């Protein structure tokens, strides 16, 4: 199975647009348009990748004599005076728990960096067998290069918790796992115990991220997958999210956000992505919708999932054909570029922010548009067609 910092996330309209709208009460008419003078682009980047979000600006003008102009921007500039006309995307004072961070090159790490850059305090849950290596690497500075935030400071992880999300409580843990030397020296690592520990240490959280999955038979075709392997994939990759949300919801503040990671294999055939993992991702997406309803009604917490494109992470390499999938995406996606983990991290930060306050139960695709394609345009069948290509 896999803080506060100065940053600016800005959303800028690509071109002017005017959208008329009528209010239910009163006769005021609003107009939404872009500010033609807006030209600032500030990037949220890591040591290896740079990504940006465009700045969306809206001018709302009433029909009354007094005109009020509100410019909406997503910004976070810790320690600096904010623009008087800006609506801040400032997560300072917010606390995030990210389950499934065990190294510095996966989506979980990128999400942690982006949230930290927006000002959030970061807590992580790391798979117990990987805990010692992860903490040692952090302590010895092996991750320092990839910890760099946009302002030059380093990502600070307030606390690392041992976690095995396959087990809900101590009673679920088999004796052979308890006796396993890889779990020696660690305690309170079931989902229930971790949630209780976080409550005892910090009281509450605002953001919950599920960034973990495991399919022991992922390289096997579905017809060759055992019942045990199939159910293990569902347990680790799908139900683990249900369990996490169930146990963390009582300590999540109203208006909070919960985010998971899925993959397009949930809805399209991806040969080689087997062992029940495609089924697990489909279940995760279905659960996201149901959880959005239940968590929204009971706790005013939003629940979304990000369908991320292929990434050369250590976990993905275990599948065995990740390079092939990246090449396929480069050849066939509308945006012909390699996906950056930071682009997924930035999307997660947006979903965790007040700017996404009305978004829940959604699958958000961050895959350079590959999900929109119906055919692979690199097929020889289309050799005589005038297929648009990236400029050299």
TrEMBL record:
<keyword id="KW-0150">Chloroplast</keyword>
<protein>
    <recommendedName>
        <fullName>Enoyl-[acyl-carrier-protein] reductase [NADH], chloroplastic</fullName>
        <ecNumber>1.3.1.9</ecNumber>
    </recommendedName>
</protein>
<keyword id="KW-0275">Fatty acid biosynthesis</keyword>
<keyword id="KW-0276">Fatty acid metabolism</keyword>
<comment type="subunit">
    <text>Homotetramer.</text>
</comment>
<keyword id="KW-0809">Transit peptide</keyword>
<keyword id="KW-0934">Plastid</keyword>
<dbReference type="GO" id="GO:0009507">
    <property type="term" value="C:chloroplast"/>
</dbReference>
<dbReference type="GO" id="GO:0006633">
    <property type="term" value="P:fatty acid biosynthetic process"/>
</dbReference>
<dbReference type="InterPro" id="IPR014358">
    <property type="entry name" value="Enoyl-ACP_Rdtase_NADH"/>
</dbReference>
<dbReference type="Pfam" id="PF13561">
    <property type="entry name" value="adh_short_C2"/>
</dbReference>
<comment type="similarity">
    <text>Belongs to the short-chain dehydrogenases/reductases (SDR) family. FabI subfamily.</text>
</comment>
<comment type="pathway">
    <text>Lipid metabolism; fatty acid biosynthesis.</text>
</comment>
<keyword id="KW-0444">Lipid biosynthesis</keyword>
<comment type="function">
    <text>Catalyzes the NAD-dependent reduction of a carbon-carbon double bond in an enoyl moiety that is covalently linked to an acyl carrier protein (ACP). Catalyzes the last reduction step in the de novo synthesis cycle of fatty acids. Involved in the elongation cycle of fatty acids which are used in lipid metabolism. Required for normal plant growth.</text>
</comment>
<dbReference type="InterPro" id="IPR002347">
    <property type="entry name" value="SDR_fam"/>
</dbReference>
<keyword id="KW-0443">Lipid metabolism</keyword>
<keyword id="KW-0560">Oxidoreductase</keyword>
<dbReference type="GO" id="GO:0004318">
    <property type="term" value="F:enoyl-[acyl-carrier-protein] reductase (NADH) activity"/>
</dbReference>
<dbReference type="InterPro" id="IPR036291">
    <property type="entry name" value="NAD(P)-bd_dom_sf"/>
</dbReference>
